[in-house]
Backbone:
């Protein structure tokens, strides 16, 4: 299946006609998805709820996916699961805008990609490790100590 250019764009204009407090759920699922710039993910799943609030539309969502990382100890690639919870208000007008600055567009189309990307990116560790007991590389010869030993002894 080919990914559309805006895979997380939705028309939520219908939410504005709902009574206050009412909401609608929208699921997402992609085997592969790329959120610009270059956040490539697999097995992406998301469940969103758009609720009618006095100030606008309240977005609540949970998203998860797998990304490829490189271990900072052994430098081997490994899959890493990221997940996040999103809660943002899309204001009806400038008077109700929050710190996020999100406003319901005139056409009712909201692209969740920038928000989802931002939230998921914050969940990526700065120094990812493939497994808690990763032994890393030998500082002398560069041997991956998870795959075998070398003749060098580390100073204690």
Residues:
């Amino acid at each position: 299946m080919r990914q559309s250019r805006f895979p997380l764009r939705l028309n939520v204009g219908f939410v504005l006609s709902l009574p206050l407090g009412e909401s609608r759920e929208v699921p997402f699922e992609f085997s592969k998805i790329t959120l610009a710039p270059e956040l490539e993910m697999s097995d992406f799943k998301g469940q969103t709820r758009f609720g009618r609030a006095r100030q606008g539309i309240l977005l609540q969502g949970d998203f998860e996916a797998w990304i490829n990382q490189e271990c900072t100890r052994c430098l081997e690639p490994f899959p890493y699961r990221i997940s996040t919870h999103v809660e943002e208000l899309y204001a009806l007008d400038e008077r109700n805008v929050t710190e996020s600055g999100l406003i319901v567009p005139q056409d009712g189309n909201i692209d969740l990609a920038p928000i989802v990307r931002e939230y998921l990116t914050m969940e990526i560790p700065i120094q990812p490790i493939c497994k808690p007991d990763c032994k890393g590389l030998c500082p002398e010869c560069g041997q991956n100590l998870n795959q075998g030993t070398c003749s060098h002894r580390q100073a204690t």
